[in-house]
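Input chain follows. Return structure tokens only.
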Amino acid sequence: MMASLPFDEELCRFSEDGILAIGVDEVGRGCLAGPVVAGAVIFDWSKVDAIRELAGQFIIRDSKTLSRERRRSTAAAIRSVALAVGVVEIDSIEIDEINILQATLKAMKIAVEGLGQLGIVLVDGNQRIPNLSIAQETIIDGDAKIFSIAAASIVAKEYRDALMEKFDDEFPGYDFSSHKGYGTKVHQAAIRSIGLSPIHRKTFWHG
């Protein structure tokens, strides 16, 4: 049975230096449609008992390992326990204008700065966030290793999935509720049949 990731990394930093860790992650980077979404989560480790209870009642780990129903309830629990949560989306128009890497980094930066908290930012992946005034550290596969990054991935994915389901109603025929904008065969066939929607990333489509 799956269990939450350990939070030794964040708790150790807090115990030794009083530093609060901010986990940040993105979802939707490789999609053909919809925004890229960044999530940022910071926990108050002076309230470790509440965080420990969260980790025991819910599964805090890479969002891709959780079912949609479990992710929905877990995201709500994270929001109720965390000191602060930030979610930022960059739409397909801006992605086409500045490219997906820059859009992803921009979303992360805004999400982190919007928390209004100081600490160290733990970034999923190997790309540092440019022009960030807060100390940061990149961690490859961070959503599978770091509790706070995993929490950020869960909140961001739940937000984006819900958004893509709304887009399914607004732009019928693409089955956005099912594939969430990723380039499945069904999605690609729909594009070839009815063309690109306003939320498609034109620079991603080479069909």
